[in-house]
Design a protein that fits this description.
There is one protein chain. The protein has helices spanning 2-35, 86-94, 128-137, 155-165, 170-180, 194-205, 228-241; strands spanning 44-47, 54-58, 61-65, 72-73, 78-79, 84-85, 108-112, 117-123, 143-149, 213-216, 221-223. It contains seven helices and eleven strands. By secondary structure, it is an alpha+beta fold. The strands form three sheets. It has a five-stranded mixed beta sheet with strand order 7-9-8-10-11. The two termini are 47 Å apart. β10 (213-216) and β11 form a beta hairpin.
Amino acid sequence: MHRIAALSLAFVFTTALAAPAQAQEAAIRKNLAERLPNFPKIDEVVKSPVAGLYEVRSGTEIFYTDEQANFIVDGHLIDTRTRANLTQERIDKLTAIDFAKLPFKDAIVWKQGSGERKMAVFADPNCGYCKRFERDLNEVKNITVYTFLYPILGADSLEKSKNIWCAKDRTAAWRDWMLEGAAPAKAMGQCDTAALQRNADFGRKYRINGTPGVIFEDGKRSPGAMSAEQIEKQLLASRAAAPKP
């Protein structure tokens, strides 16, 4: 009986604590909707590490507000004691990528040696850093590379991506262009290029804001080109840290 009574009291106490939090969230949602009708759809409202400051999440966008939503802060929250960017850490968690669940059907694939080590790259065909990165990859052994065409640098990038994707041998067309500067032949006839839009949607969702956007087996992300030595070092680290099947 004593145990039942204790559990009942704990439930009442927990419920009492939850009620104000729910009311606070409701007030924030209500006030923002009324005052800022064009504000993005709110997915979550939670307390931030700062007293009186609430995190408002819309997709992977993070904002901060007070208890009555009288003010909105669009910026990063920094812990001055540790210099940690708490906002970026939160975004990194929200945009973490499970390598095994990447949409590999939308990628161009090539490998060297055994191909036992894997990595993915979001790349624009007109990106100079991507071309340099592709050359550096040639020096790395035993890798499989999944390249997701990600034309973000303009209309010509999209046109080249379509031509590469529609080529009879996509891998050869991609590598010939990136390594040798041999422009892909213009796509003729019917070709399904929906993969390019899916790549664009994926990139926006997971905040791949530049190219090359590199993803390793453990989900580690690297924005920008890396040298062969840096690639090798991260491949070793990521292989050790990757979840075992």
